[in-house]
Amino acid sequence: MNIPKPKNSVKDAFGFSIKTLLVFVLFILNIQTNAQDKKNKFISNFEEIFITVYTEKSFSFETDVLISDTNLIYLNVEDLFRKLKIKCLSNENILTGFIENESNRYRIDFKKKQIKIGTISIDFTKRVIADFGVDYIEASALSDAFGLTILFNPRSLSAKLTSSFELPFIKQQRIENTRSNISKLQGKPIISDTIITRNYHLFKLGTLDWSLSSFQNLNIASTSAISLRAGSELLYGEANVSINYNDQSKFDPRQIQYNWRWIDNDKKIIKQAQLGNVSNQSIAFLNAPLIGATFNNSPNTIRKASGSFTINDYTEPNWTVELYINDILVDYTLADASGLYLFKVPIVYGYTTLKLKFYGLLGEERTEERTMNTPYTFVPPKTLEYSFTSGVLQDAVNSRFGQVGFNYGVSRFLTFGAGLEYLSSIPNHPFIPFAKITFQPFPSMVLNFDYAHNVSTKGLMNVYFTKNMFLEVDYTKFVEGQLARRFSALEELKVRFSRPFKNKYFSGFTRLNFNQFVYKSLTYNQFDFLMSTYYKQFNLSSSSFINWASSNSSFIRSVLALSYRLRNGLVVRSSAEYNLSTNNLVRFNGEIEMRVSEMYFSLSYARSIQSKKNNFFLSLRYDLPFARAGISSSYSHNSLVFSENAQGSLAFDGENNYVHTSRNSAISKGGILFYPFLDLNQNGVLDSGEKKVLLSNVSVASNVAVISKKDSIVRVSDLNAFVNYNVKFSDTDLDNISWRFKDNTYQVVVDPNQYKHVYVPIISVGEVNGMVYLVSNKTMKGQARVTLQVYDEKGAKVAETLSEYDGYFSYLGLKPGTYIVRVDESQLKKLNYKSYPTEHQIVIKKSTYGDLLEGLDFKLTSIASLILKE
Question: What distance in Å separates the CA atoms of residue 764 and residue 848, rounded to the nearest whole number?
């Protein structure tokens, strides 16, 4: 029996298989779609918000979190670890990295809902939420696994984060701050958006300092004095001239001083040069001002080496003392009730100028300046630096002077130096070859050895036993009969010891000095001990002095000083001196000071027991915006004296006819004029029709910016010439939300004795916004956490933002130009979604207040649902 074969049986079987497979696939996709809808419905019980997370030391950052109805907080671990700088690598649904150190590795498996860290395994099945492709873990799970405790405050929408270890985020901030401080000391440039270099002029005025004083005594003729100092830029360098006149003395050419200084740290052969009145660290004693030239190849920046030394000395009580290294203010202090001040000076590389400025309570200003390659000269490794000085002394015989010196850095801790000095007024040995070695065997110890042929041999050591306990030993042996340093002993020994102390109730420091001078016929010794203590507003200072020569009896005296500062600015101070050798009180005095706003008042009384004289002193000072003026009077032994003084300065800006007045010196200083303006055509130039912008604040390192409401110019005065200053502009200080600074940080080199003009362009940026909708089962709702990306016309991504909880997104900060806005393709691929439209092409137009493009909407549809519809 023949059974007929079905027609097209193979074809029918194949078609049936395809239909069956298609139905199965659609069934699975339908289940996935329903699961996604259920998941979205479950997540709707949570709210997505943007919070600020605060960490220790005032550091903070912002992140997206999910908050439950019971205020449980869920975090995106990958985003959190990225902001905390914790190592985190993502591979599909697994995060790996390490916590605190590389040996403490972790693994977060979102499929298995498991965290493994070291040998510990934690299950977080019930503490995880998935939202649109992102997994959020409940904060308690992060605390259990990593020691990250996050305390959420629903009222302020913020959280406090603490950890059981130092977060890399905090550590990085700490290291960056430390490196920034070290870079400043070492003279390394700080990275800025814009660097404004020196402007050079053949001639440009200028600054002017002036001071007037008058002295009247009823018994003798009155005296008046005037001092003028003018500063300018001449032949691309700083030029200063000063003249001092007193009506009671004949004119002396030494009353006129002049100096020309040129600095360019970018040059190799010569970085600094001076002409005119110059100073120099000489081996021989120079008994008159030096007129000549000096130059070297050391930069004027502060390049911090390792180690430090201590300066301590006396001035008037409560005077302010400033320490400058290479004309840069590095520290300041207030002298105590006895007048003692102390500085811990960092050892810096190269040719160094150390300057001390003293500011009195009545506006007095004295400046002590000394140029030094000692006590410690370090040069960077494998670096050769030199200095050369030559000139004529303004003495009776016009002595000729010259010095050339070289220093070579063998290593970071060892420097060799040598050179030759010449002084024509030394009759027997005018040429003085010299050599030196500076060595640092330990971080807390520095040794220095100097040899000057036919003059002296010197050894210097300083040691820090603790961070602040300091010992210095200085020994010098002079060649007998040498005339380079006349009236010197054959041997000199100086020992310095200082130690601060502090406890719960008071603080202070002790100082011990011992000096010994060995002559042919005698040995002279000096010893002094001081202890200064602070308790709240009290300052108690006790000092003792002992002097003796060879076997002769010693002379001993002691001074006790006490001061008390009231909260209203009133200071009461008293002191007494006692002679222990004769067991007699020598003198005592009392003083009250009062400072109210810009006015200072002082009244003092002193009684000399030996001479039986009484002294009264009364003074008044007032600080005006343009000058400092004071009057004083004193009465002693039927003698009444009056004095008046005033001082100030002028700084000129010829381009704007602007004159800056100040009560402080303007010589060797400079200023900066910032012109913030709205740069509509973005060419960086203030063109006609572009307006200046009034700022609310400008941050200038170590200085204050004055913002003029009249002309919107930002003026910064009293800056040191040839020094780099860092300036920061913040977008939050602009009145319009659509304005942005083209560059936020500037590094400006200050030109000498003038105001430098710096234009600060501000650009107007555009904003785009729209909605992201999720289309599912004929419903459409806003979808959160969708990544929107913005690309420029070259195809480079310039911006990225996330949609909010209701699907709304916005981005402000696009410069005028052509852009494309689209949903992140990798996110769409991961979620198996498609976007309609695929992208928006937009154009941001130039506008004073910023362009705004709205309605850039996107609709997201599951690819699975599209297949079902088809």
Answer: 6
Around Cβ 784, how many Cβ atoms within 10 Å?
Answer: 22
Dist CA 99 CA 120 (whole Å): 13
Q: Measured in Å, how far apart are the chain's first and last C-alpha atoms?
A: 47
Mark out the alpha helices in 91-157 (DSSP H runs).
139-146
Q: How far is CA 838 from CA 93, 133, 774, in A?
A: 27, 20, 14
In whole angstroms, what is the distance from residue 587 CA to residue 569 CA? 27
What does the block give as tokens for 842?
A: 């937009």
pLDDT surpasses 80 at 595: no
Residue with more model confidence, 600 or 744: 744
Secondary structure letter of residue 381 according to DSSP: B
What is the spatial distance between Cα 595 and Cα 363, in angstroms, rounded to a whole number?
13
C-beta neighbour count of 254 within 10 angstroms: 12
Q: How far apart are CA 124 and CA 105, in angstroms?
A: 18
pLDDT over 70 at 674, yes or no:
yes
Helices within 199-282 (DSSP H only): none
Confidence category of residue 187, pLDDT binned at 50, 70, 90: very low
Best CA proximity match to 51, nearest among 74, 81, 85, 82: 74
Residues in a beta bridge with 348: 304
| Residue among 372, 407, 404, 375 nearest 390 (CA) | 404
60-67 vs 73-76, strand pairing mode:
antiparallel
For residue 655 the two structure tokens come to: 């381009």
* Residue 617 CA, distance from chain mean position: 42
What one-letter code names the amino acid at 761?
P
User: Whole-angstrom Cα distance, residue 365 to residue 404?
Assistant: 33
Which alpha helices (H) appear in 528-639, and where do they start and end? none
User: 358: number of CA atoms within 13 Å, CB side?
Assistant: 18
Spatial contact of 766 and 853, defined as CB atoms under 8 Å apart: yes
**Average model confidence (pLDDT) across the chain:** 82
